[in-house]
Automatic annotation (TrEMBL):
<protein>
    <submittedName>
        <fullName>Gamma-crystallin M2-like</fullName>
    </submittedName>
</protein>
<comment type="function">
    <text>Crystallins are the dominant structural components of the vertebrate eye lens.</text>
</comment>
<feature type="domain" description="Beta/gamma crystallin 'Greek key'">
    <location>
        <begin position="22"/>
        <end position="60"/>
    </location>
</feature>
<keyword id="KW-0273">Eye lens protein</keyword>
<comment type="similarity">
    <text>Belongs to the beta/gamma-crystallin family.</text>
</comment>
<dbReference type="GO" id="GO:0007601">
    <property type="term" value="P:visual perception"/>
</dbReference>
<dbReference type="Pfam" id="PF00030">
    <property type="entry name" value="Crystall"/>
</dbReference>
<dbReference type="InterPro" id="IPR001064">
    <property type="entry name" value="Beta/gamma_crystallin"/>
</dbReference>
<dbReference type="InterPro" id="IPR011024">
    <property type="entry name" value="G_crystallin-like"/>
</dbReference>
<feature type="domain" description="Beta/gamma crystallin 'Greek key'">
    <location>
        <begin position="61"/>
        <end position="103"/>
    </location>
</feature>
<keyword id="KW-0677">Repeat</keyword>
<dbReference type="GO" id="GO:0002088">
    <property type="term" value="P:lens development in camera-type eye"/>
</dbReference>
<feature type="domain" description="Beta/gamma crystallin 'Greek key'">
    <location>
        <begin position="151"/>
        <end position="193"/>
    </location>
</feature>
<dbReference type="GO" id="GO:0005212">
    <property type="term" value="F:structural constituent of eye lens"/>
</dbReference>
<dbReference type="InterPro" id="IPR050252">
    <property type="entry name" value="Beta/Gamma-Crystallin"/>
</dbReference>
Length: 195
């Protein structure tokens, strides 16, 4: 039995320890107090585990948290570290109702292409680095569609990586509503480099 497990482990292209290290801990109260819930996989509905979230400790992996069940609502992107209150993850309330780990984005390259019209029409611009100010770097600041060909990205509604966040991984986004935004305005964006 030991030999079979050893052979399976040797055939995996990504070290198994990467998957075993995914962990996030939700605490009901600020400063890691109150009841807690440990999570190591995607969860579409956290409401049966806790009613409010006052602090979070990310022990492994990067996570996207959502304000409502089924990965809907405001998004919060957290990398490993401690978040003693909601302000640390840029939230104004204690509603965290679903979460998922950021997966399948291993590598050392990032590439995203934005379009000023939906369905990949109009002016376009390709980017491979963080951008703290869209208005200074682009001829257009309304992104109606985009294609992520490499890596994972976080879009922010305000410059300097502030305001509402939106997580984008590899794929096509025909309209800004595909990434959960209520409008096409983007103030800044950055690569997600910690997994």
């Amino acid at each position: 039995m030991y030999e079979i497990h050893f052979l399976i482990y040797e055939m995996l292209p990504i070290p198994l320890t990467r998957f075993l290290s995914l962990q996030i801990i939700f605490f009901e109260d600020r400063n890691f107090q109150g009841q807690c819930y440990e999570c190591s996989s995607d969860c579409p509905d956290l409401s049966s585990f806790f009613s409010r979230c006052g602090s979070i400790r990310v022990e492994g992996g990067c996570w996207v948290l959502y304000e409502r069940p089924n990965y809907v609502g405001y998004q919060y992107i957290l990398s490993p570290g401690e978040y003693p209150d909601q302000q640390q993850w840029m939230s104004f309330n204690d509603n965290i109702k679903s979460c998922r780990s950021i997966k399948n984005v291993y590598g050392k390259s990032w590439k995203i292409k934005f379009y000023d019209e939906q369905d990949f029409e109009g002016q376009s611009a390709e980017w491979t680095e963080d951008c703290p100010s869209v208005s200074e770097a682009f001829k257009f600041s309304d992104f109606h569609s985009c294609v992520v060909t490499d890596g994972a990205w976080a879009l922010y509604e305000q410059p300097n990586f502030k305001g509402q966040q939106y997580f984008l991984d590899r794929g096509e986004y025909h309209n800004y509503t595909d990434w959960g935004a209520p409008s096409p305005g983007v103030g800044s964006f950055r690569r997600i480099t910690e997994f």
